[in-house]
Amino acid sequence: MDAKSKALFETAKKYIPGGVNSPVRAFAPVGRTPRFIASAHGDRITDVDGNEMIDYVCSFGPGILGHAHPAVVEKVQEACRHGFTYGAPTENEVILAQLIAEMIPSMEVSRLVSSGTEAVMSAIRTARGYTGRDKIVKFKGCYHGHSDGLLVKAGSAALTAFVPDSAGVPADSVKHTLLAVYNDRASVEELFQKDPDGIAAVIVEPVAANMGVVLPEDGFMEFLRRITRKYGTLLIFDEVITGFRLSCGGAQEYFQVTPDLTTLGKIVGGGMPIGAYGGKREIMEMVSPAGPVYQAGTLSGNPIATTAGIATLKLLKEDKDIYHRLSDKAEKIASSIKEAAGGRVCVNQIGSLLSVFFTSEKVTDDKGALSSDVLRYADYFGYLLDHGIYTAPSQFEAMFVSDAHTQEDIAFTCETIRNYFLKSPSASICYTE
Ligand code: KE4
Q: Does the C-beta of 403 come closer than 6 Å to ligand 1?
């Protein structure tokens, strides 16, 4: 079943910290040996023991079109024949920047980097350079990559470890990082009342997806837009997950709220390593060499990654029905959990993102997420894995649906989930769409 994965994991632990190159992949919260993956096509992923599974991790977001989309593969193969990286500007970077600006109009000027972490780190520096202020506000349970100043009550695998603050981060690096509670307007107002002229930026996941999926309550994004404008603070939407996923224009189009800066990752690279940050021209002109905020990167905008990103964004831009198809599939899964669980789980779903929390409470912030029964989640994860369904290996990650998920595989997933809850009838649900 997983003999080769087990053997590889033991060897990996000799040469790589925890045997993985990103903590969430170690499957620690779900108590299973991580599956070492050999290949992936469409909505299927195959491990080194030959187990083929329906994939709802989708590489934690990039895989919105499914794995190895033929049109993207063909373009990338062609690009490889012309060299991998030049350390010089290319036409692809202009094309991708134009596409980003067309699809997310608030990003009239953008800079490509190589990860979401780099995008967020750079956006924060740009906001500080533009405003001349030092403090930033983040929300407990939100994850914005692993740059020092943001590893404070962070989400994702940091939350899993129940140690959301990392060792090795000097207190001085986080003294300007203020914490608010997601969906709690008073917690934000309090910070501004204490320091009305000192906050450079508020950074938020417009849909939180790193404490499990937690939706913004009605008007919360509009509230953040108003209060940041009132105090001369920049609003940064971290759309590394929601960008091009919730809609063609991301969460800011979905909610019709325009931030000052946006960060992107995952889908913008089509599975290749790309991050991006961007916004209004007057802000982005602060960035070197146009302005005094320094930021650089050897592989930023490289020809292979930009080829994958351009091909992916063009497919999303040209297919007007894709977001309806994605939502329809995710709603079917969410509904099957609601129908089967009976009342003691909470399902949060929006577009092609969803999470099931094993708690009878509605989950609206990090406290609610942390109150869920992570051991029950691990049991649910293990049942699905044993039945060929590869879902988020932690309560604090999202389940992702791709355009490659077939109706048959969605139906099989719903049936398997129903069977899980039928075998443990005590579960029930509170359901928020
Ligand atoms: P990367 O540096 O991992 O490309 O992006 C960091 C990041 C920034 N902002 C948001 C909203 C994010 O979700 C992420 C990364 N997401 C995690 C999944 N929760 C990446 C998976 C991992 O850490 O392996």
A: no
- The answer to whether residues 113 and 265 touch, using CB atoms and an 8 Å cutoff, is no
Q: Has 266 been annotated as catalytic?
A: yes
Tokens of 133: 């202020």
Protein residue with its CA nearest to atom 1 in ligand 1: 116
Q: From ligand 1's centre to the CA of 240, what distance in Å?
A: 7
Q: How far is the CA of 107 from the centre of ligand 1 (A)?
A: 20
Tens digit of each residue's pLDDT (9 = 90 or more) over 48-59: 999 999 999 999
- How many angstroms separate the alpha carbon of residue 423 from the centre of ligand 1? 34
Angle of CA points 88, 90, 96, to nearest 5°: 130
pTM summary value? 0.96
Question: Which atom, in ligand 1's list, is nearest to the CA of 265?
Answer: 4
In this prediction, residues 88-100 reach a mean pLDDT of 98
Task: Kindly report, residue by residue over 148-196, the tens digit of the pLDDT.
Answer: 999 988 888 777 655 558 899 988 899 999 999 999 999 999 999 999 9
Q: Give the span between the Cα atoms of 159 and 153, in whole angstroms.
A: 7
Q: List b or e across 90-110, with b for residues whose CB sees 16 or more CB atoms inside 10 angstroms.
A: bebbebbbebbeebbebbbbb
Return phi, psi of residue 155, to 5°.
-95, -155
Q: Which of 56, 130, 143, 377 is catalytic?
A: 143
143 tagged catalytic:
yes
Residue 117 Cβ inside 6 Å of ligand 1? The answer reads yes
CA dihedral sign, ordered 32, 400, 64, 301: negative
Which amino acid makes up residue 30? V
Read off the pLDDT of each residue in 274-284 and give the average, rounded to a whole number: 98
* Ligand 1 pocket mutation, candidates 122, 124, 144, 396, criterion most atoms within 8 A of CB: 144
Distance, in Å, from the CA atom of 172 to the CA atom of 420, rounded to the nearest integer, reads: 48
171's CB contacts (< 8 A; 6+ apart) are none
Q: Is the pLDDT of residue 372 over 80?
A: yes
